[in-house]
Write a structure and sequence with these properties.
Order of helices and strands: HHEHEEEHEEEEEEHEHHE
Strand content: 5-15%
Shape: globular
Radius of gyration: 26 Å
Number of helices: 7
Number of strands: 12
Largest sheet: 6 strands, mixed
Structural class: alpha/beta
Length: about 300
């Protein structure tokens, strides 16, 4: 065999190996991309929790004494993907002008948990977020003290994502991407049916996995356990701060509910004497549906 023929065959074989390597690399990259796409589809809640109110520290007045144990949420609200899909509501000038005091308080880890992508039977969860309104029953400080104590008994563990004091101070407790234990045996009713999720085989199903829990501090005249059906109501500052807080969310009005409405134990009546019309009026003052601009032809 002449050297020229031998060299030609070696060159052809080398080119074939190079082509095979390129094909394998392309196939591996395609498989990786498909895996990433499948992962996003199988976990639809990756960005859902950014629909909840986020701590607006930069626009709030910080009190002189603030807890240094800040729980940082990994939810990124400045994500282009998240913002593109969460474009229904925008805050207003009234929202920018209202600046409530705030506090950040660390909750004991036993009193909150992770949000699950599947229920106890392994079924993927696709519930859209809801907001559940509560009241503390006693003072804000007593509720906060309870949340800061470790509780081994799962039936006792409890928390809210946020709490609003009588003076309108917003207390951030559990990050929105975490599961606060605000409603034990609970169901959210919709025209399409009921929504509830069981994440613990030893406890009843609840709305906790897709709920953001926010509570109003009960006025002192409501501390009497024998008269839990009524009290003097909430302050103007509380209504304003509640509306301001929820205005930061992308949760629609019809998915904002109360502990009383979702409860299935028959024991929860909060928030008592809550003026829903006043709240919705203020909410519409602090946020509005993003206007859609059409290009004229």
């Amino acid at each position: 065999m002449r050297f020229k023929d031998w060299a030609t065959r070696v060159l052809l074989i080398s080119l074939m190996f190079m082509a095979l390597i390129v094909v394998l690399l392309i196939g591996r990259a395609t498989k990786l991309q498909n895996n990433l796409t499948t992962s996003r589809i199988s976990n639809p809640q990756v960005t859902a929790w950014s629909q909840y109110p986020q701590a607006q520290f930069q626009s709030a007045k910080e009190p002189e004494k603030k807890s240094q144990n800040v729980i940082k949420s990994p939810v990124k609200t400045n994500s282009p993907v998240a913002n593109k899909s969460l474009a229904k509501y925008v805050t207003t000038q009234a929202f920018a002008q209202y600046r409530p005091n705030y506090q950040v308080v660390a909750v004991n880890p036993t009193n909150y948990g992770e949000r699950y992508a599947q229920d106890v039977n392994g079924i993927p969860l696709t519930n859209q977020p809801i907001i559940v309104l509560h009241e503390t029953g006693y003072s804000a400080s007593s509720a906060i003290n309870f949340f800061q104590v470790a509780h081994d008994d799962e039936s006792v563990q409890a928390s809210y994502h946020a709490l609003i004091k009588l003076d309108g101070t917003v207390v951030y407790l559990v990050p929105p991407d975490k599961r606060a234990f605000g409603a034990a045996n609970s169901v959210f009713e919709t025209p399409q049916g009921v929504e509830t999720v069981q994440t613990n085989p030893n406890l009843p199903a609840s709305v906790n996995n897709f709920a953001y829990h926010v509570s109003l501090e009960t006025p002192p005249d409501g501390y009497d356990g024998s008269s839990q059906q009524t009290h003097s109501g909430y302050t103007e500052a509380q209504y304003n701060s509640l509306a301001w807080l929820i205005a930061q969310s992308q949760v629609p009005d019809d998915r904002i509910t109360t502990h009383h409405l979702v409860d299935r134990s028959g024991k929860k009546v909060d928030p008592i004497n809550f003026d829903g019309n006043k709240f919705l009026s203020l909410l519409n003052t602090y946020r509005q549906v993003r206007p859609i601009y059409r290009v004229s032809k």
